[in-house]
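In this supplementary section we document a worked example of the pipeline. Step one takes a protein sequence of length 63 as its only input; no multiple sequence alignment statistics are reported here. Step two produces a three-dimensional model, which step three serialises into structure tokens for compact storage. The input and output of this example are shown verbatim.
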Amino acid sequence: MPDRAPHDVPPAAAPRHRTSTTERGSFCLARCDCGWRGPARRARSQARTDAERHLADVAAAGG
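The serialised model returned by step three reads:
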């Protein structure tokens, strides 16, 4: 079976969108189970806002 590109994954097998934040030294970044990763931020609150925006973008796109 040939490898599939991420955009070829059937909707039922597409990854869920669950976000979390991870700290690396003095920086915090948001991540999602789909593979999305936000920029490194010094403020945890800004990393959480990045995650919320990602979820809003996904919902607006219908995914």
